[in-house]
Amino acid sequence: MRLLVVEDDIPIQEFLKKSLSEAGYLVDAAGDAKTGEALALEGVHDAFIIDLGLPDSDGLDLIARCRAQGSTAPVLILSARRSVDERVRGLEQGGDDYLTKPFALAELLARLRNVLRRVAPPQYESTQLKSADLNLDLLRREARRGEEVLQLTPQEFSLLEYLCRNAGRVVTRTMILDHVWRMRIDPATNVVDVHIYRLRSKVDREGLRPLIHTIRGVGYVLKPV
Ligand code: CA
């Protein structure tokens, strides 16, 4: 696996190069957006780790330029910008995950493995999704918690499938609208919240360990906690 790190803070860049190399990755690094873009467009990297505060451009613009030129490698944003708005913007503008500085190396590595796993599915597409005692049979469009079959509408099943495919990762309302409804709906609409509410009443029944969690101001995440 080969990574591209775009980070102008040299001590952090050095730390990332060293620790990611030790973790078994090949690492290229750039200290500004222009160099980063040139390297990114070589198309040889499995993932990018991009800082937002770069000397010559905003990291989000760099991501947008790479995407516009056909780069599909997943992006882990690493930034000192901690506000919910900034994180949502990062995720909506092409970032696959967002980690704020200061960060723990173990978390960076875990998130990196996650974004890499998502883009490198096994050769065959599995027809089963599983998270804790939740099982989705994608062929039969059937969801179970433990032994119990959940009575879901097709829309609810699609929503649950999307959450399950992104298990452990926060998805925003806009991402859900894009992927589940597959159309541009005014993000101010509460259609997602309404469906999540109904879905949750079926998936996370009283007495069961809750799987669907609300991240206030950001979106939702499916994870067993
Ligand atoms: Ca910076």
Q: Please, could you describe this protein's structure?
A:
With 225 residues, the protein is of the alpha/beta class. The protein has two domains: 2-119, 3-Layer(aba) Sandwich (Rossmann fold); 128-222, Winged helix-like DNA-binding domain superfamily/Winged helix DNA-binding domain (Arc Repressor Mutant, subunit A). Helix content is 40%, strand content 22%. The protein has eight helices and twelve strands. The strands form three sheets. The protein has a five-stranded parallel sheet with strand order 2-1-3-4-5, sandwiched between helices. It has a four-stranded antiparallel sheet with strand order 6-7-8-9, with helices on one face. Strands 10-12-11 form a three-stranded antiparallel sheet. β3 (47-51), α3 and β4 (75-79) form a beta-alpha-beta unit. α2 (33-40) runs parallel beside α3. The model has no long low-confidence stretch (mean pLDDT 90). The structure holds calcium ion (CA). Residues 8-9, 51, 53-54 line the site of calcium ion (CA).
Entry summary:
With 225 residues, this protein is α/β, with parallel strands linked by helices.
Specify the CATH homologous superfamily of the largest domain.
Response regulator
The CATH architecture of the largest domain can be given as 3-Layer(aba) Sandwich
State the helicity in percent bands: 25-40%
What structural category characterises the helix and strand content? alpha/beta
Major sheet attributes: 5 strands, parallel
User: Could you tell me the strand content as a percent range?
Assistant: 15-25%
What is the third-level CATH name, the topology of the largest domain? Rossmann fold
The CATH class of the largest domain = Alpha Beta
Q: Which ligands, by name, code or SMILES, are bound?
A: calcium ion
Gross geometry: elongated
Q: Radius of gyration from the CA trace?
A: 19 Å
Strands of the biggest beta sheet: in what spatial order? 2-1-3-4-5
Total count of strands: 12
By DSSP (H or I, 4+ residues per run), the number of helices equals 8
**Number of folding domains?**
2
